[in-house]
Amino acid sequence: MCRVLQISDLNLAVEGLEKERDFYFSKLRDVEVLCQEHENDNIPIVTQILDILYATEVRTTSQLYCFLALWRGVINIFLIMLTMHFSIFCH
Question: What burial class does residue 75 get, using C-beta atoms within 10 Å of its C-beta: 0-12 exposed, 13-18 middle, 19+ buried?
Fold first, then answer.
């Protein structure tokens, strides 16, 4: 029974994280669309925002910390899902 509660708690945690991820992705997408609409207007902040959104490499220490925090979250979600998978099928 304890494992069932753990799995239930993990499922709720994953659902919460997925909702949060989707919420912030939606916000970023809205910002991207807004910036794309004004991309040719020579507005410096628009160019800077698009540069950040489309960056493929880490350039500064703060970007590195953000990148590492993001991947730490992704890895944690993967480990939770992996744990759930093995808990369900191994017991």
Answer: exposed
How far, rounded to the nearest angstrom, does the alpha carbon of residue 17 sit from its chain's CA centroid? 9
> Under a CB-based contact definition with an 8 Å cutoff, are residues 35 and 46 in contact?
yes
Residue 91's SS3 state is coil
| H helix and E strand count, the chain | 3, 0
Residue range(s) defining the domain that contains residue 66: 2-90
Looking at the 3D structure of the chain, how many domains does it have?
1
The domain that contains 66 carries what CATH number? 1.20.5.1430
Q: Tell me: the pLDDT tens digits for 1-36? A: 577 777 788 888 888 888 888 888 888 888 888 889
Mean pLDDT for the stretch of residues 62-90? 66
User: What is the value of pTM for the model shown?
Assistant: 0.52
d(CA 37, CA 89): 49
Q: Give the pLDDT mean for 42-50.
A: 84
